[in-house]
């Protein structure tokens, strides 16, 4: 199976930067397993057959009176096929809890989107050896009451929060063990064996090493997304 590389631009770029970025990547990605997740306002500028398009979050509601939100059907109408849900920044600064995340996952899957569900522990939880407990809770609550046939469109992104944007990364062995735990836990809870991505300070320099982890099915990348030359280098290494 081809690895998935999802690039999350977060709340970065203005219109001129978007235009430059798009001209830099034009004709160079050519892989539908590469998912670009620009800010919602710029999603339409990224419409292309050369890669997949995703949102950074999505509404749990259908269309209607929900000021400021973006619906699954709106995303789909411009060709979007993925959405990230439960990113730690939304869990923390938008106070999204497991219940809301579960509602979003359900709505997105029922709408035919692929979901990248982010899970991961804080530094404090890691230090207190609570990683397994946190991941188990996030898996169990995030995927609750979802019919088995829809679960095949769920991709889990393991993102230790203490690794996001810090340059600190667990060893390959540690990532591998945690991903085995995620796969086993998801299977024992929901009889579904998920694809698992790693996210946290992945860049063009460490991708070669991280790409050697056998049970990692791809990457979710923040900071390095913002430089198209880094994106192209990461793509080259992962596709090798
Ligand atoms: C992220 O925010 O999901 C992320 C992985 O960010 P970074 O690559 O910058 O650590």
List the helices and strands and how they pair.
Layout: E1 4-8, H1 15-25, E2 34-37, E3 52-55, H2 72-77, E4 82-85, H3 88-93, H4 98-110, E5 114-119, H5 123-127, H6 131-142, H7 148-151, E6 154-158, H8 172-190, E7 195-199, H9 207-210, E8 218-221, H10 228-239
Parallel strand pairs: 1-2, 1-8, 2-3, 3-4, 4-5, 5-6, 6-7, 7-8
Bound molecules: phosphoenolpyruvate.
Phosphoenolpyruvate binds at residues 8, 159, 164-165, 199-202, 220-224.
Walk me through what this model shows:
The protein has helices at about 15-25, 70-75, 90-95, 100-110, 125, 130-140, 150, 170-190, 205-210, 230-240, and strands at about 5-10, 35, 50-55, 80-85, 115-120, 155-160, 195-200, 220. The protein has about 240 residues and is of the alpha/beta class. Strands 1-2-3-4-5-6-7-8 form an eight-stranded parallel barrel, surrounded by four helices. The longest helix has 19 residues, at about 170-190. The protein is globular, with a radius of gyration of 17 Å. The two termini are about 15 Å apart. Phosphoenolpyruvate (PEP) binds near residues 164, 165 and 223. Phosphoenolpyruvate (PEP) binds next to strand 8.
């Amino acid at each position: 199976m081809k690895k998935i590389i999802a690039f999350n631009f977060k709340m970065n770029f203005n219109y001129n930067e978007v235009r430059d970025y798009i001209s830099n990547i034009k004709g160079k990605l050519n892989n539908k397993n590469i998912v670009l997740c620009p800010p919602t306002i710029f999603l339409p500028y990224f419409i292309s057959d050369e890669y997949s398009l995703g949102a950074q979050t999505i509404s749990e509601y259908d269309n209607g009176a929900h000021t400021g939100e973006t619906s699954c059907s709106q995303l789909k109408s411009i060709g979007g096929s993925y959405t990230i849900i439960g990113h730690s920044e939304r869990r923390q600064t938008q106070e999204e809890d497991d219940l809301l995340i579960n509602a979003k996952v359900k709505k997105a899957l029922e709408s035919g989107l692929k979901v990248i569900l982010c899970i991961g522990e804080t530094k404090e939880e890691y230090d207190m050896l609570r990683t397994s407990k946190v991941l188990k809770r996030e898996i169990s609550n995030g995927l609750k009451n979802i019919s088995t046939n829809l679960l095949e469109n769920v991709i889990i992104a393991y993102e230790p929060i203490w690794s996001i944007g810090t340059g600190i990364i667990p060893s390959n062995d540690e990532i591998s063990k945690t991903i085995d735990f995620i796969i086993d836990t998801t299977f024992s809870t929901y009889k579904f064996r998920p694809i698992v991505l790693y996210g946290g300070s992945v860049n063009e320099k460490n991708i070669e090493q991280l790409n050697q982890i056998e049970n990692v099915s791809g990457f979710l990348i923040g900071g390095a997304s913002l430089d198209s030359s880094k994106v192209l280098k990461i793509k080259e290494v992962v596709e090798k």
